[in-house]
Amino acid sequence: MNQPVIEAASRPAVGGGFRLQWEAAQNAHVLLYPEGMIKLNGSAGEILRRCDGATTIGDITADLERAFATANLFDDVIRFVSMAVEKKWLQIRT
What we know:
Layout: E1 11-14, E2 19-23, E3 28-33, E4 36-39, H1 42-48, H2 57-67, H3 74-86, E5 90-93
Antiparallel strand pairs: 1-5, 2-3, 3-4
């Protein structure tokens, strides 16, 4: 199966079998799946919590740039989303 093209208009969503939640004991967002848990770093958690299947990568990037008063995050967001799609953490909705 070919990987989807990931671009500004792509709409990522947490992949099937995974659930994102804040874990106070870990002081981090975690991605839960039947076999275990992935503790996410701060950046990964901030990106993943915005991946609802409706919001585009362009809008996710703009929201992150506003929230953290920074710029030029698009390439970093695309790189993370691409890696997360490869690992099946995210899927791209059309």
